[in-house]
Amino acid sequence: MDIRTRVEKAFERWKGSPPEIITRLPQSGSDRVYFRLICREDQVIGAYNPSREENEAFVGFSNHFRSKGLPVPEIYVYYPEDKIYFLEDLGDINLFTWLARRSDEERFNKETEKLFHTIAGDLVRIQTEGIRGLDLSLCYPHRSFDRQSIVWDMNYYKYMFLKLIGAPFNETRLERDFEILTRFLLDAGQEYFLFRDFQTANIMIRDGKPWYIDYQGGRLGAPQYDIASLVYDAKAYIPENIRKTTIDRHLALFAEATGRSRESLEMYQGAFTLIRLMQALGAFGFRGLHENKPTFNESIVPAVELMNELLESGDVKIDLPELKRASLAVPLQRKYRILEHYQDMVTIHLESFAYVKGKIVNYDNGSGFVFDCRGLSNPVTVAELSELTGLDPEVIEFFNNDDEAVAFAGDCTNIIRNSLPMMRRKGIVNIHAAFGCVGGHHRSVWSAERVALMLSAMPGVEVSVKHTALEE
User: Which residue has the higher pLDDT, 472 or 436?
Assistant: First the structure.
């Protein structure tokens, strides 16, 4: 029985009837598989994860955090033997896509800074209130961010990044630096909840407010790690001023909540930022350099820039000469320079049009795609939708509930996404894609917007959308 069928059967066991619509959601780097299921008035997320330990942790932590009034999804039902659970649907917009969809002027304005400060406050509550009464036996694979956890992350960085990228280092001296860094990190203590992957992809934005997911790797740890995970998220390109004010906000609120001195907290911030970046680069190296997954390779250059900036800033309060030497040597390596070459920003221009107007977009550099949306179901046949457009919530819901439409938009996205390495090699930095339907008001508009949403989540990509029939 395939995963989709297993989730459908589990839903029917829970609700007494099968889902009317089930849509598989895009998969990230983990083995977890998510579906959106709709049945009458119910809309939920179904999750399958082959790791029962992770499931127990996520479900247990979620129930505990909910009891504390923390903004995490409600777990409706959990079937341990099937490794399936159903949880609250928080929508499709996470902090990463929320940032990516904003204009250059809006992306990191005062509203964004205020949102980051709200998130910093929520994090303090998760770390301090969330740990009280938490069943620590659920923590997997480790109860705390202990010596072994730190050593794993350091070796991940050494073997999956430094060695794969070809950076030179002295093994003995590097191990000496690792030991110094490990002792320093352990001196900070492990008393609070460490979320572990507190990054923009794991913060959902619903009705303008943040909600938090993917904390199944949580454990006891120090507070500085998670805030570093957020503001040093290499894919998000968060500017220095936002990073600084968000960290300052978090440290101030944490000191207020715990009675700890601000100075003692700040002393360790740089070192925890460093170990987080090392862990991230290990993951990017494994998924990108080893498994050759493009989206992870695209994160290497900005992550290296952040790490080298940190090592030269003096914010890491201990001397790590060999680690610094190895990291600063990374940009000189041939593999890195190749990645850097393909890091140039690409702008993707999406446009909807009407076939009845006879308009096909002319591309200034001959690079682009035309997608015919006329095979999709037409909301014009639904009386209450006929006068609306693909920008209206009712029409968006119509298509989002249509598996064929969602699959079509996903295929269009993949065609464009997979063309980017070739386009970059040819020096093409402006790519065009046109979406056409009969009148240019419904199917083409929704398709262009849906594809824009998915493409805008990619690093190194800017997306513009134009609807020609709506503008005439």
Answer: 436
Question: Which strand (E) or helix (H) includes residue 378?
Answer: none
The residue among 70, 88, 106 that closes a domain is 88
Q: Cβ–Cβ contacts within 10 Å for residue 404, how many?
A: 11
Choose among 272, 270, 276: nearest CA to 310. 270
Tell me which of 283, 313, 341 is where a domain ends. 341
Contacts 24+ apart (CB under 8 A), 96-101: 96/200, 96/201, 96/233, 96/235, 96/236, 96/457, 97/453, 97/456, 97/457, 98/205, 99/200, 99/236, 100/456, 100/457, 100/463, 101/452, 101/453, 101/456
How many other CB atoms are there within 10 angstroms of residue 276's CB atom?
A: 26
In the prediction, which pLDDT does 456 show?
A: 86
Backbone angles phi, psi at 438, to 5 degrees: -60, -55
Same domain, 57 and 152: no
- How confident is the model over 446-460, as pLDDT tens digits? 999 999 998 987 767
> Structure pTM?
0.77
pLDDT in tens, 357-396: 875 555 544 468 999 999 999 999 999 999 999 999 999 9
Domain tally, the chain: 3
User: Going by DSSP bridges, is the β-strand pair 42-48/21-24 parallel, antiparallel, or unpaired?
Assistant: unpaired
Model pLDDT, residue 107: 83
Q: Are residues 320 and 352 in the same domain?
A: no
Mean pLDDT to the nearest integer, 64-88: 98
Calculate what percentage of the chain has a pLDDT beyond 70: 96
What pLDDT does residue 104 have? Answer: 65
- Burial of 363 by CB count in 10 Å (0-12 exposed, 13-18 middle, 19+ buried)? middle
**Does the CA dihedral 407-408-413-415 come out positive or negative?**
positive
Buried b (16+ CB within 10 A) or exposed e, 419-457: bbeebbeeebebbbbbbbbbbbbbbbbbbbbbbbbbbbb
The residues, ordered by sequence, that sit 6+ positions from 67 with a Cβ below 8 Å of its Cβ are: none
Provide the CB-side half-sphere exposure for 104 (13 A, CA): 5
Do 166 and 290 lie in a common domain?
yes
Residues in the chain, overall count: 472
Classify residue 355 by its DSSP letter.
G
Q: Are residues 330 and 365 in the same domain?
A: no
Residues whose CB falls within 8 Å of the CB of residue 427, separated by 6 or more in sequence, listed in order: none
Per the structure, the complete domain to which residue 457 belongs is given by 346-471
- % of the chain beyond a pLDDT of 90: 80
- Tell me what pLDDT residue 290 has: 93
